[in-house]
Each structure stands twice: as C-alpha cells, then as structure tokens.
Amino acid sequence: MDSQLVFRLVGLRYKLLWAQTRTRNGRIALFMVGYASALLVLIAFTAGGYGAAMLAVRSGQAEMVARAVLGALFLNAIVASVVLGFGVNAAFSDAALRRFPLNPIERLAARHLTGILEPMWIIILGLDLGLSTGMYVFGAGGFWLGVVAVLLLVITDYLVARVLASLIEWLSRVRGGTAILGLMLLTVCILPSMLAPRMATAQGFIQRSMLALRFSPPFAAAALVVHPNKSSLIFNLGLMAEWIVFLLAALAMIERAAARPRNVAAAAIVWISGYDRVASIFGPAMAPLVARSLRYYSRSNKVRLNFSIALPVLAFVTLGRPLPGDPRHKFVVSLGAFAVVGFLATATMCTNQFGFDASGFRRYFLLPISPEAILRASSYTAVFVGCLLPPVALLLWLVLAPVPFDWRMAPMLAGSAVGGLLFFNALAIWTSLLAPRRTAFETTFGNQLSFSANVLLIGGILLMLGGATALDQMAGPEIVLQYWWVSIPAVLLAAGLYFFSLRRGAAVFIERRERLLNALEGRN
What is the pTM of this model? Predict the structure, then answer.
C-alpha cells in the first residue's frame, strides 16, 4: 500500500476542512458544533462533574454514568462530523480517488483514513478514553477492555456519521430526495420535543425505551467499560461487531447507489409546458419571464424543502405549546404564523431574486423589454408561489384547530397571510437590489443569503411571532376579535408598499445594474 500517498490525501482533507470552515457556511456550522459541545460541557458541570461521577461509581451507578457520557459524545460526534464534513466527503469518494494511482484496497483505505483521522474523531477518542481511564482509576472498570470498547465505539460512531452523510448527499441529488430530507429534518427537530412531555409520565414507555437502547453502541460500550461478567462480555463484543458489519454493508449499498449513473433520456422540445400555461395568466408580455421564474422556484431544492416544512414548523410553533386559559389565545398567536407562512416558503429565493443567475444576469439587458418588467416578473412569481400555502393553512386551521369557531377569525387570518406576504415581498425587492449575493442553485442545505436578507428572514419571523404573542398578552383574544376589520386596511397598506417598491425598485434596478453584475459574478 502506498502509505505516503494515502497520508498526503489525509493532509489534503485537513486543508479542505480548514478552507470550508473559513467560508460563511463553515463558520455557521462551526458555531453550531461549538454550541452543542459547550452545552454538553455545561450539562456535565451542572451535574457535578467528577464529584458526581465518583459518587455514582461508589453508589454502584458507574454503568449509568458511562451510558450517559458515551451516548452524549456519540450523538455530538455524529452531528459535528455530518455538519462539518458535508461536501468534503464528495471530494474523497471512490470515483474522485480513481484519479490517483491507487488500487481498490488503497482507495478504500484512503477514503476511511481521511475521514477517521479528522480532528473531531481524535477529540472524541480522547474524551472516551478519558472516561474509560477514569472508570479504571475509580475501580469500576478494566483498562485494556475499556480501550477496546472505546475503539469499537469510535469506529461505530464514525460509520454512523458516514452513512448519514452519504445518505444526505445522495438524497439531495435524486428525484424526490428533498421531500425525504425535509421529512427527516422535521422528525429530528420536532418529534423529540413533542414526545418529551408525554414520555415524562409514561413509565412503561421509558422502560421499553431503555430496554431497546440496551442494544445501541453507547450502551454496549458502557457495559464493556464497566466490569462485565463473561457472558455479558461476549454478548456486547458481538453486538458491537454486528453494528460495524451492518453499517459497513449499509455504507457500501448507499455508495453503490450514489455511484450508479442515471440514464436520462433526451427530452423533446416542448413550447407550451405546464409552466407556460400557468404563467399565461400574467399576460402575453409577462408570461415568458414568469415561466422562467416558475422553473427556478419549482426546481430549487431549497424552495422545495422550505415549502414542505413551512406549515408543519409554524403549526408546531403556534399550536404545539400549551397556552392556559381561553383557547382563543392560540388564534391570536397564529396571526403571526399566518403573516410569515407564504414568505417562509420562498424566502431563500425571493430575498435574493437574481442570485442564481450569475453571469446570465447580463442577458436581461439584451432583451427587448424594460428592466421594470424583469423585476416585476421575478417578484410576481414569488408572490404567486407564496400564496399557494395560505389557503391550505386557513383550511387546516378551520378544520383542525382546537379553538371555538368564530367567523371573524377567517378574515383576520386571511388578511394576516395576504398582508404579510405582500409586506415581506416588498422588502425582499430591496434586499435583492441592495444586498445581492451569488448563490449555488443545486444546494439543499446551508445559508447563502446576505446579511440583510438574513435580517429580513429571521428578524421578520421573530417579529411576527413575538408581536402576536405580545398582542395576546396585552389585549387578549376578545379585544383582538372586536377589531377584526383592521385586517382590511392592513392588507391595503401592504399592497401599497409592495407596488411602490416595484415602481421605485425598477429605477434602482437600472442604476445599480453594474454593481449587481459585479456581485453576482463574484467581483466585488
């Protein structure tokens, strides 16, 4: 085996990781990982640190401490590896390594050595060894058996992270994979918080869960770290070996599916497609430009993901938390969610309307149309796509919301949705013109928006949800419902701001076209 070349590839991966952490998305990922690690340390200190560990060992709870610490490190390492290594793993795939003079065995070794020798896994190995050594010092475990258990756990942890990273990268490229990723994201983010209050009182469920977790890698490693009997030793070593074999097989299957070429038949030229038929409602002059923007929105993985999770996320934020007293409190809080539901679905594109065009932005000024028409077509498409969600949200609210029916709720919720959609799209015109940013079209995850667009997106959502909560606390549902008619002038004001932004933005569009071009081509 050409070990010199393999370790040169390891050094190359370190350089790529360092380069990725210096990018904007890399800094965000590094912050998330640092936050999770700091939270883990804080929990450890809050629980009493080494004093609590010594007390647990002396009271016979050494295995419980080992389970908690190894499980927390196991999950933290998976998240950190997937977040920080996302995109880098593709550079060391089997197809990419075929460019180097390596045989199949050397390519396999290079792929996994470049991954497991990352700083994250070295840190996790050190922390796990620290725990096993501490158990040995406190008299609750064996030294060499603890070392073997930790090595097997780190290998299993690495394989789980590689399987998840490979699965995410594969799903982000296949048809329908974005919807599956969105469902996975919702499950990971929302399901634990929904189940936690119910699990606290379900003793039977907790006992069955602990029994099932007994077969997980951290629990098996914890049993090996603490003095086991002979039958337990064989069982846990076999369990760890089974996990490694299963994960290796799953990783090979995913990589084989990802490497399989996709046969795409040549498509016939279609002059009147579904996009053109939908865009025809905007008139013959605007239809071609609107159809082009519709294709952008419907084919963007980020828009698809946000569109699929917008309703579940906002429903969880507004209806998932208990509000004591009058059930109509949930209606007032939902006004803020309705104000952002349409904007949330399209925000990644409408706040940076020309970010995906890159050098193609030049072509707009070669067309026999006015710049105002280009801006209007792009903004109209964002409003059109965003307005598809509020009717669905309103229907689901009227049918499923645990609130007594009041006819005044429907116009208020509809007015909040329409007004919020127009208001935020009016501001999105200015972020697109004054703070453009070149972005990659094929990405699914990662924040590529400018600072101003992030302020509008994150600040707008927090402002609407927080403002609705403050309105509920200060006025109450009955007073809010008495002023249901306020939603009508609010919609008119938002529409006025939107059309004013379109007219004034057309002039700014012409004035700043060179700056826009420089930003989109990455020359500023």
Answer: 0.63
